[in-house]
Design brief:
The chain is α/β, with parallel strands linked by helices. Helices cover 39% and strands 19% of the residues. It binds 5'-O-[(L-methionyl)-sulphamoyl]adenosine (MSP).
Length: 623
């Protein structure tokens, strides 16, 4: 039987500037989905590329004093190398300046002109060059582009038109009958409204500039850049040669929400005119925002993904992009948030689980995986539940939801270590120890498999430490794969803790310490050190590294502000006992009066909170 094929695409990016984190976001998401389908044994084709023609690129090149072709060359090379650094596993990379693409575009143009779907007339209207989009006067907002708000230019040209209007009814019927065709539902509704209002024929050639694919037999005209660009999804798989049918129709066009209209209106009409089946799904994801505006070159608020990879590693960046924002929604980017995610989820939760588990297997089981047993703490059951959940989430493109599910499993395993305290079991020679260690190690193995679509290096490093084969398939997420008797190989911590924003205020550990001065016992006793329990914890508004804590202290409640947000999530602190300096002079920090200070070990590793080794009554003095 033929294997299921899965054809997935990203938009092809304009090489008008170096790409930023927003572009990386789409590509990393597509990569995770492509990897997931490959792990399931499907035959995958993952296409990306560059959209190199059009007036925008021609003008950018001219501004740089170059012809368009040499101008884009360096940028395209940079894009390829960025994808390599991020571990993008595309099977095809299409440049619209390639011969194979021009051939496909001209072939389509000819076919549609022969069929009467393309005709020549004169165009009068408006054009937004940054968006490369035509607009009717009625659609302009205050005379500007309704999409980006920038000024439009008046065009009066002879032009070829594509008979979009002819396909309006069929497209509307398709949208209505296939609720999955455009997703998420908010975008589908926008498109339904748009198409219901009627479709005008679309101008698809220009004569006022020349950087594009010439119209066959009428070389004064170049083909409109979007008509050219959309056809990459066919030329990239070999169209017009018959082989393209192996992959077509695409299962998924992943695009940013601002270009859904091109993919959900113009593209299906071109395909209908060609008598080709429509793609199964067009998904319009949200934007990465800086503050509350889109990250984009024209707003000058972009972040270079290369720097983030260098500073934090590609897995930290990939994890952050896929975990931080629910996939269909907009979400804010910040470096602090990236650092916090890495420290809390990757270094603490996942990294500690691995280092504690392998340390215990070395100490208590001679460095080999011990035999398993009954299901301690329900980890096997939970693991199967989570695997199902991650699979469903990935099928539904809920990338962040999939990762949240994986972390339920990781959190449960960490909790189990606390609950069962293996050290005590070892001391008492309790036979429950072996199955517990097995379950913890097996949880890590399953976690590594479930993370394989998302992260590049981490899954292999986990599996290697567990002595398990490195190249998993999705089916390997089934519980019970670890073979007792396998020798483990403890390794370096998975994620070193990160210190946020090196350009920001110095971390205390980075300030050279003055040699400590001697104090008398009386002086020391002036410090009112107590144990307190965290009752509430929340982020301080507008201060990424600060948490506001309410502490229970022997009948009284104190508010303190602590600079530990890069290392601890508020919800993980509630219920925890901390060491507290109760008679520190109150201070106002970011509008909150801090009544004391919690103490932490502060090394280059960031703050680590101190707690008594078993719970004591709140307010207990520390001497
Ligand atoms: N060349 C067209 C696409 C043609 S597809 C046939 C284009 N290119 S682009 O370089 O502007 O890149 C657009 C894509 O980059 C968006 O659709 C989106 O997927 C991604 N993003 C660019 N900025 C982004 C954010 N700030 N946030 C999320 N994604 C962003 O449009």
């Amino acid at each position: 039987m033929a294997r299921t094929t899965f054809y997935i695409t990203t938009p092809i990016y304009y090489p008008s500037d170096d790409l930023h984190v927003g572009h990386a976001y789409t590509t990393v998401a597509a990569d995770a989905l492509a990897r997931f389908h490959r792990l399931r044994g499907e035959e995958v084709f993952f296409l990306t590329g560059t959209d190199e023609h059009g007036q925008k690129i021609e003008r950018r090149a001219a501004a740089a004093g170059l012809a368009p072709a040499p101008f884009v060359e360096g940028i395209v090379a940079g894009i390829r190398s960025l994808w390599e650094q991020l571990g993008i596993s595309h099977d095809g990379f299409l440049r619209t300046t390639e011969e194979r693409h021009a051939r496909a575009v001209q072939e389509v143009f000819r076919t549609l002109r022969d069929r009467g779907d393309i005709y020549k007339a004169s165009y009068e209207g408006w054009y937004c060059t940054p968006c490369e989009a035509f607009w009717l006067p009625s659609k302009l907002v205050d005379g500007n582009c309704p999409d980006c708000g920038r000024p439009v230019e008046r065009l009066r040209e002879e032009s070829y038109f594509f008979r979009l209007s002819r396909y309006q009814k069929r497209l509307l019927a398709h949208l209505e009958e296939h609720p999955d065709f455009v997703q998420p539902p908010s975008r589908r509704n926008e498109m339904l409204n748009f198409v219901r209002q009627g479709l005008e024929d679309l101008s698809i050639s220009r004569t006022s500039f020349s950087w594009g694919i010439p119209v066959p037999d009428d070389p004064d005209h170049v083909i409109y850049v979007w008509f050219d660009a959309l056809l990459n999804y066919l030329s990239g798989i070999g169209y017009p040669d018959e082989g393209f049918r192996h992959w077509w129709p695409a299962q998924l066009h992943l695009v940013g929400k601002e270009i859904v209209r091109f993919h959900a209106v113009i593209w299906p009409c071109i395909l209908m005119a060609l008598d080709l089946p429509l793609p199964e799904r067009v998904y319009g994801h949200g934007w990465l925002l800086m503050g509350d505006t889109k990250m984009s070159k024209s707003r000058g608020n972009t972040v270079d993904p290369r720097q983030l990879i260098q500073r934090y590693g590609r897995d930290a960046l990939r994890y952050f992009l896929l975990r931080e924002v629910p996939f269909g929604s907009d979400g804010a980017y910040s470096e602090e948030a990236l650092v916090r995610r890495t420290n809390v989820d990757l270094a603490n939760d996942l990294g500690n689980l691995l280092s504690r588990t392998t340390a215990m297997i070395e100490r208590f089981a001679g460095g080999v995986i011990p035999p398993g047993g009954a299901d301690p703490g329900g980890l096997a059951r939970l693991s199967e539940e989570v695997t199902g959940e991650v699979t469903r989430a990935l099928e539904g493109l809920e990338l962040s939801g999939a990762l949240t599910a994986v972390w339920r499993l990781v959190a449960r395993a960490n909790k189990l270590i606390e609950e069962r305290s293996p050290w005590a079991l070892a001391k008492a020679g309790d036979p429950a120890l072996d199955p517990l260690l097995y379950s913890l190690a097996e949880t890590l193995r399953v976690t590594a498999v479930l993370l394989a679509p998302f992260l590049m290096d981490t899954p292999g490093r986990i599996l290697e430490q567990l002595g398990s084969p490195a190249a998993p398939a999705w089916a390997d997420a089934a519980w019970g794969g670890l073979v007792p008797g396998t020798r483990i190989r403890r390794g370096a911590p998975l994620f070193p803790r990160l210190v946020p924003d090196p350009a920001g205020p110095q971390h205390p550990a980075a300030v050279p310490a003055a040699p400590p001065e001697e104090v008398s016992l009386e002086e020391f006793q002036r410090l009112d050190l107590r144990i307190a329990t965290v009752r509430e914890a929340s982020q301080v508004a507008g201060a990424d590294r600060l948490l506001r804590l309410s502490l229970a202290l022997d009948g009284e409640v104190r508010t303190v502000v602590a600079g530990i947000a890069a290392a601890y999530r508020p919800e993980d602190l509630v219920g925890r006992q901390v060491l507290f300096l109760a008679n520190l002079r109150p201070a106002r920090i970011r509008g909150v009066t801090s009544q004391g200070m919690i103490l932490a070990a502060s090394g280059s590793d960031g703050p680590r909170l101190l707690s008594p080794d078993r719970d004591v009554p709140d307010g207990t003095r520390v001497r």
